[in-house]
Amino acid sequence: MSSTASGKSGTWRNWGGNVVARPAREVEPASVEELAAAVRQAAEDGLKVKAVGTGHSFTSIAATDGVLIRPQLLTGIRNIDRDDMTVTVEAGTPLKRLNLALAREGLSLANMGDIMEQTVSGSTSTGTHGTGRESASIAAQIKGLELVTADGSVLTCSEKENPEVFAAARIGLGALGIVTAITFAVEPLFLLTAREEPMPFETVLAEFDQLWAENEHFEFYWFPHTGSTNTKRNNRSAGPRRPVGQVKGWVEDELLSNGVFQVAQWVGRAVPATIPTIAQVSSKALSARTYTDIPFRVFTSPRRVRFVEMEYAVPREAVTGVLRELKAVVDRSGLRVSFPVEVRTAPADDITLSTASGRDSAYVAVHMVRGTAYQAYFTAAERIFTAHEGRPHWGKVHTRDAEYFTRVYPRFGEFTALRDRLDPDRLFQNDYLRRVLGQ
Q1: Rounded CA gap, 390 and 326, in Å?
Q2: Residue of 30, 55, 94, 238 with fewest CB within 10 Å of its CB?
Q3: Are 55 and 12 in contact (CB under 8 A)?
Q4: Mean pLDDT of all residues in the chain?
Q5: How far apart are CA 322 and CA 319, in angstroms?
Q6: Please, which residues have CB within 8 angstroms of residue 352's CB and are 6 or more apart in sequence?
Q7: What is the DSSP letter of 286?
């Protein structure tokens, strides 16, 4: 190991606090060569290898008792190609830094999720997505990948080079190798106008198809124990830029969405009986607002309240039925749910294990504040999601295994065959991959 990569052992925890790992050693490679050397060394020592970004997954997808590779030093933009309209970035680059750097260059990704703390490789490897009628997940915007495989060699792939690896590795779950660089499609910086407004639950469901069809990016939050939702429509705009005012933004995004919300979670945790009342108040606290800004300032928002999350992709046409079933379960059970349910959409894509692979999808995400018992709620929700052949987000809590995935992913065997070829000795294996991909 070279002097710039640090090897240290300790305890690793994920962001949600529900996964703990004790790796034999940690490595921070400063180059692709150092990373490849660390992979070869681990194989010689008989240790498994996992790379971990910021730990925003709620599953144990990044956990290992072997070598934990941290890509903090593999950050920054390698290249911007204005002819091809692509940007190549090191795998450990946080999305936040990528978004800021692109904006300075007058460029942007077409779509993104609502959190930008994650690294580019961590977010794409687990299938992180936003919401979009035509524009899909972050991984669907990938044009090329660089991957260190189990034998320590560096593989580049795209639609033209190693296309079968490219088809799978864009959402590779860390099972095919360690991603060291990603080339994304970008476009000239544009403006989005966001329109946020409360809407009754039944109205949103009755008009869901229309709301989806009329907006480039539609999403909504439903507050359990209420008949209320908050909707958000993002559409491209000619401008001018009219960002949320600093004070108003602080009140709405920090005080209400993080500060008051955190206090409400604490109260709800201490006295669960108060949750329905708190939900009624919370759902009415948010007023309608419209603002216009560059994409990442509209798509993303800070999340300071720590939570645990389960999210499933269901066929888009099934989503209103799924939500009615979920509401019925919450209403008739003794469950006390203090966190809103988030609903987004994605078009079908061609990535082997993408949650939207081959089908237009809607995402339903359930959350509980960190430290509360979430199992009963998540189990009830999961029963509904799986009845509709739902596909769980790879980085969020679920109980599915390879047998289930064989049924809901038509190309599942394609992925496992590629893994057999690239990692026959299962160097990148851990308990989570053993469960979801099988032996």
Answers
A1: 14
A2: 238
A3: yes
A4: 91
A5: 5
A6: 167, 168, 171, 409, 411, 412, 414, 415
A7: P
